[in-house]
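Ticket #4471: structure export looks truncated?
Reporter: QA, pipeline team
Priority: medium

Steps to reproduce: submit the single chain below to the structure queue and open the exported record.
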Amino acid sequence: MVLEKIKFVKDTCYVGLGVSPGIAIGEVFFLSRVREPGVSRTISADQVGEEIAHFQEAVALFKQQLVDAKGRITDKKMHQHLFIIDAHLLILEDKMFLNETVARIRDDLLNAEGAVKNTLRSFENLFDSIEDEYLRDRKADLESVGDRLVRNLRGETIRSVDEIGEKTILAAHDLSPADAMQIDRKKVFGLLTDRGGRTSHTAILARSMGIPAVFGLGNFTATIPNGMPVILDGTNGMVIINPSDGTFKEYLAKKQTLEYIESRLAQLRDLPAETQDGKRVSLRANIEFPAEVGSAFKHGGEGVGLYRTEMLFLGRNTLPDEEEQFRDLREVVEKMAPHPVTIRTLDIGGEKILANESYQRETNPAMGLRAVRFSLRETGIFKNQLRAILRASHYGRARVMFPMISSLVELRACRECLEEAKEELRLAGTLFDPQMPVGIMVETPAAVMIADLLAKEADFFSVGTNDLIQYCMAVDRGNQNVAYLYQPLHPAVLRMLAMIARSAAEAGIPCEICGEMAGDPLYAPVMLGLGFNELSMNAYSIPVVKRVIREFRYGDAEKLVAALINFTTAEECREHLENEVLKRFPDLSQASRI
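Actual output as written to the record:
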């Protein structure tokens, strides 16, 4: 093999996305390398039947492979994640996917590989314009299904995780969740992939298993030979090939430091997030599936601050009915009891879930018919969801939250729909919590400017900092040309956050941060000093944020924010913040900050 003949200089470095923190040292083992995408070619009419049968056989084989994978998962901790494999099975059983692929073979005279490629591309386009990174990364599930189907169509043999040796850094072009769930943690020290994002299911699994991982490495698997010594830094997204003795000793020391930090953080799980001078903060988890409740508890979460409901609607040809939504929500609320669960209503546009000409892809979907704008236009869909949320509220502490509110008119219209849903349930004799709190996401500059008015008619605020910063700065952080302008510490952003917190405090309602700023320990003192008493984040970030809060004083946090507000640039703010925080927590730069 040509790769085996390549001589790599010492300390060859690759940079990707650090998706699971930690340092791993070992030899690389390739589960799969880059493969060519499905090859499209025209077939004759008399080949159609054969190609359709070939496709159906590949689907049947893939289903069996997934069922077999579930059977091989013996680690009970992984059972809570089996829904991910079920999601892949649902794609393979989806009539729209199956029928559309067969139609492309029959009507377009395409071979099975080409038909699969084109069908999945049309499905993936539904995800491309979704603003929420977490939801957008669900496209990886479709890509994973497509890759395996094409390999089955070609009759390729895929290496098994059973072949993995000791002290291995597992590498793959794109590691499927099914493969990740079968990994023996005693053998695999780290994960590397060419593709994948921070919020892909495989990345989530890596974090839940405590396996350091770097994804998005480009052509890594096409250039690195099997068995090469590797150092993986999942905190900083760095991979070092063929490390020198000096580099090896340096990272071995870092690894030992990180493991010590993590052991200290684990001891905080059952302790409150309370400052040294008695200020109490609630730390909650952002999740999208009932199975993630276990991870929230494991990391010390005190509830769910954001339950995304969109996934139940995506990648299917029929809308989930009220009963299906109720079952999903009830499971989350029951599992998390007695802690609260904040349920966000749909935060996507109609073109993602309705096959209707009136919902064609918009030029600027971030500012189009999405979130409550869509819900208030499609009140039938909206009230189905509201009834499901209300019914689930009977089984625990549920809160409903409306996204992208920009006016009192919208809030009042949402409340009116909620009251209608309540009345319908009363007439049916269905139980629900009549006092279920009703909140809004503050993520538009308009909502910030009327926060004092909104606070009089909302039971709580939740600030979506990701969208708020983008709308405030007029910047798409996914656009590399302007991503540098996405500045959480810009004076305008800090002033907006201060206005929101002040309006909530004056109205006497809780105020939460649920965007990425909540999960970054560097910003924890800022959120504290601004007056936010609830923070919601990815579960794995809770321990390190809790540590900062417990070792800080509320009075010092207020002084810190007073200083930041007076700076004139984001650069000055960040320099001052890092000086103040990192001098107290010198090891924080090595902790779980992704």
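Status: closed, not a bug. The export was complete when the record was re-opened. Leaving a note from the reviewer for reference: Residues 267-590 form a domain with the TIM Barrel fold (CATH 3.20.20.60).
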